[in-house]
Specification:
Elements lengths: L2 H24 L9 H5 L2 E10 L2 E5 L14 H13 L5 E10 L2 E8 L2 E3 L1
Antiparallel strand pairs: 1-2, 1-3, 3-4, 4-5
Length: 117
């Protein structure tokens, strides 16, 4: 096969790939990072306070995710809260924050160990 044919094929593939990437960054609605990966992911930003008797402290739920994990939706947050309360570490966990997803931003609260959207 002549070199010019390979170059034309390579240029065509690169052009198609570039066009696909450009449309991926501009499609799908969402207020926060319009790229498809971010539009389908769910992030939770929340301030929590754990109580054990009279002792209160800030709870960082990301300490309980596997290393490198950063995607945390309400079901995963509830699972971590259940683990922390059933293990006896805290009697009660409360807090508030927001969830970022394909539906935009939503308020989220934790009241008496339960996630409330």
């Amino acid at each position: 096969m002549p070199e010019s044919v390979l170059s034309a094929v390579q240029i065509g593939v690169i052009g198609a790939l570039a066009a696909w990437m450009i449309t991926g960054f501009t499609s799908l609605p969402g207020r926060w990072l319009r790229w498809r990966m971010f539009c389908r992911a769910t992030f939770t930003i929340i301030d929590l306070t754990g109580t054990k008797g009279e002792f209160r402290e800030t709870v960082n739920v990301y300490d309980y995710l596997s290393p490198g994990s950063f995607i945390l939706g309400p079901p995963q947050l509830q699972a971590i809260l259940d683990h922390l309360t059933h293990s006896g570490r805290y009697d009660r966990i409360d807090g508030e924050g927001r969830v970022l997803s394909a539906r935009g931003e939503q308020r989220v609260e934790v009241r008496n160990n339960r996630v409330v959207l």
